[in-house]
Amino acid sequence: MTNLQENNARLEAEISDRQATAEALAHEINQPLNSIKMISSGCLLLIEQGKEMSAEQFVENLREISLQTDVISKIISRLRTGIHKDEGATAPCDSPALDQQGRGTVDANIACR
């Protein structure tokens, strides 16, 4: 295999890895966004239909929306941490252990870089 072929193969593998990471990131962020959408849409529907919601339920919905935005914020923060690492640096990584700690696919991909 020539140097050019080796470089092309390496670049193709890198692109494939980045695409997989981007897809995983989109999935990870989409989950809390869907939750926010469902909660807020449910509240709006009740208001539009003239139905009442207890103050406690309204507060609980707001708390859940806040929690979901925290999830998105943490994903983005971990992504930024991964971006600022030296791309050439690698470190041993036990992905299954990361998943057992409640971290998603994106976190495992970023931590392994």
Largest sheet: none
- Count of alpha and pi helical runs: 4
SSE-based structural type:
mainly alpha
- Report the count of strand segments: 0
What ranges have pLDDT less than 50 throughout 5 or more consecutive residues?
97-113
Strand content: under 5%
Shape: elongated
H/E series, N to C? HHHH
List the quaternary state of the chains: single chain
- From the alpha-carbon coordinates, what is the Rg to the nearest angstrom? 20 Å
Helix content: over 70%
Number of domains: 1
First-to-last CA distance:
26 Å
What is the averaged pLDDT score?
80
Brief overview:
With 113 residues, this protein is mainly alpha-helical. The protein has helices at residues 3-48, 55-84, 95-100, 105-111.
Folded structure, characterized:
The chain is mainly α. It has one domain (3-111). Helices cover 79% and strands 0% of the residues. The protein contains four helices and no strands. The protein has helices spanning 3-48, 55-84, 95-100, 105-111. α1 packs antiparallel against α2, α1 (3-48) runs antiparallel to α4 (105-111) and α2 packs parallel to α4. The relative contact order is 0.12. The model is unreliable at 97-113 (pLDDT under 50).
Top keywords for this entry?
single chain; 113 residues; mainly alpha; 79% helix; 0% strand; disordered C terminus
